[in-house]
Design a protein that fits this description.
The chain is an alpha/beta fold and 546 residues long. It has 3 domains: 168 residues, Glucose-6-phosphate isomerase like protein, domain 1 (Rossmann fold); 169 residues, Rossmann fold (3-Layer(aba) Sandwich), CATH 3.40.50; 162 residues, Glucose-6-phosphate isomerase like protein, domain 1 (Rossmann fold). The chain is built from 21 helices and 14 strands.
Length: 546
């Protein structure tokens, strides 16, 4: 692995921050699980630091994971259906996209991740599998997360219809903490296996635990290589050397320093092979630091401007993630252009795709250090529960009245007015309660390009309700610099949830309403556009309005 930092005018500031880490003994205190690095209150800190030794701790679990993967392969399952949200799904999905595409042995089942309650998305996932020949991994740290429990109810019904009630349990495994409701359900309802994770690991720091390694093993990933790269990074970050030689501490010092000096838009300009990494790092940075009206605003998968770097404001810190055999110049030579224009840039080069394990560890360590630099508690998510409570309230109204509250109906003209009044340092957050289709992706890409070019502000994009377990914390607890565009649609079909009082369509709409209410209550600048039965066309009309 090779790291190159081109920090320009910020070099001395970051060096000073790293020296301060040394004088405050931050790496040593982090190694000792010292919660006072972030707060005098140990709540959700002292019991959230087991990730620091996960690469070595999980080494002893590999034989059992390989044995279980062989059992599933021998049983003839064609797919692994990962039913989770946030930290339970994003890490495994990144491993699948970055490394899984290099696994050529077709004997392993393919993994599909379901982390959306939008019924069109549920229907597409269902259409890609044979439930009778799919192993479903119900993944939730708390064991009470609504989305994976509703997914489980839906697929359990399908499996029982095909295999019968007695045999259906073999098609399900659980990944959860000990003594959760999901762990109990796994026993009561005859799941094939329950993997009980170390409870002293927060969800977004859990990718190198059972939450990430179980799905990876089932799909043929070489866990030994993945953990070996993570162990090397663990050793480099946990030595007694100066912070300037500690890859995680140095990155954390750089991130925190940039935020304190107005460059809070950490923009990942990953090469194509590493682009999926943004899915995971978005949650890690946003949910960990987006509090107290400050924080890191991660910008991932933003369309590249070619050679027109003028669309970038002075609020950016660029990080390129690339493989060693990728084009040295980076996407369209943009890295060199950015350096020449005076933007701070870091280039993190991986020897091969299995160095992804090292990057997981580096960024977790860096996020903890950045939280210390910014005076932020990086292991809680105080504004996430509020969105869940508002969704429950909306669903209660639906159960009482038989209808959801009336939704707002804005248009592209309101978005244009808000963007026209935007200031340097603002950003547009696109929150799409839509299925992930090529037409929608293309429309969102065009919208982001138009906003970047015309208004020179950063853009982010997340599918709902996935982002509620990721950037949703930042939207509400972070700086008030966001302009929030919510996109909803007519559901082409709705899907009932066996044993629940509402359908997937009602749940998705309630989540969108609850989220918008939360943003409105905080006085955020919001626009809600219902794009009807033609989402791609609706997004195109928004672009035209700009």
């Amino acid at each position: 692995m090779t790291d190159r930092y081109h920090l320009g005018d910020y070099s001395q500031l970051v060096a000073h921050a790293a020296a301060k880490l040394d004088s405050d003994r931050v790496p040593a205190r982090l190694r000792g699980h010292d919660h006072t690095l972030w707060s005098t209150d140990p709540t959700e800190i002292s019991d959230r630091l087991a990730w620091l030794t996960l690469p070595t701790d999980m080494r002893s679990e590999l034989p059992g994971l390989y044995e279980f993967a062989d059992e599933i392969r021998t049983a003839g399952y064609r797919h692994v259906g990962l039913l989770g949200m946030g930290g339970s799904s994003l890490g495994p999905e990144v491993i699948r996209r970055v490394i899984g595409c290099t696994v050529s042995n077709g004997a392993y089942p393919q993994m599909l991740t379901l982390d959306s309650t939008v019924p069109d998305w549920v229907a597409v996932t269902t259409g890609q599998i044979d439930p009778k020949r799919t192993l479903f991994a119900v993944s939730s740290k708390s064991g009470t997360t609504t989305e994976p429990l509703t997914f489980y109810a839906y697929f359990r019904d399908l499996v029982e219809s095909g295999l019968g009630v007695e045999a259906a349990g073999d098609n399900f495994i659980a990944v959860t903490d000990p003594a959760t409701a999901l762990a109990k359900r796994a026993g009561d309802e005859n799941f094939r296996r329950a993997f009980l994770n170390n409870p002293d690991i927060g969800g977004r720091y859990s990718v190198l635990s059972y939450f990430g390694l179980v799905p990876a093993a089932l799909t043929g990933i070489d866990l030994h290589r993945l953990l070996t790269s993570a162990e090397r990074m663990q050793e480099r970050c946990r030595t007694d050397g100066p912070a300037a030689e500690n890859p995680g501490a140095w990155l954390g010092a750089a991130i925190g320093t940039m935020v304190k000096h107005g460059r809070d838009k950490l923009t990942l300009i990953a090469t194509e092979s590493m682009t999926p990494f943004g899915l995971w790092v978005e949650q890690l940075l946003a949910e960990s630091t987006g509090k107290n009206n400050t924080g890191v605003i991660p910008v991932a998968a933003e369309p590249l401007p070619g050679r027109n770097e003028a669309c970038y404001g002075e609020d950016r810190f660029f990080v390129q993630l690339r493989l060693a055999d990728d084009d040295n110049s980076g996407p369209d030579g943009l890295v060199e252009q950015l350096q020449g224009a005076g933007h701070p840039v870091a280039v993190l080069e991986l020897a091969d795709v299995y160095d992804l394990g090292a990057e997981f560890y580096r960024w977790e360590y860096a996020t903890a250090v950045a939280g210390h630099v910014l005076g932020i508690h990086p292991f809680d998510q105080p504004d996430v529960q509020g969105a869940k409570d508002r969704t429950v309230s909306v669903l209660e109204q639906w159960q009482r009245d038989g209808a959801l509250p009336a939704a707002r109906s804005d248009d592209g003209a309101l978005l244009a007015r808000l963007l026209e009044s935007s200031q340097p340092g603002d950003y547009l957050a696109i929150m799409a309660y839509l299925p992930d289709t090529e037409g929608i992706r293309e429309g969102v890409r065009e919208l982001r390009q138009r906003v970047m070019a015309k208004y020179r502000i950063a853009t982010t994009m997340g599918y709902g309700p996935r982002f509620l377990h990721s950037t949703g914390q930042l939207h509400k607890g972070g700086p008030p610099s966001g302009i929030f565009l919510q996109l909803t649609q007519d559901h082409q079909t709705d899907i009932p949830i066996p044993g629940w009082d509402f359908s997937f369509g009602v749940l998705a709409d309630a989540q969108a309403l609850g989220d918008l209410q939360g943003l409105d209550d905080l006085g955020r600048r919001t626009v809600s556009v219902h794009v009807g039965s033609d989402p791609a066309g609706g997004i195109k009309r928004i672009v035209e309005a700009l």
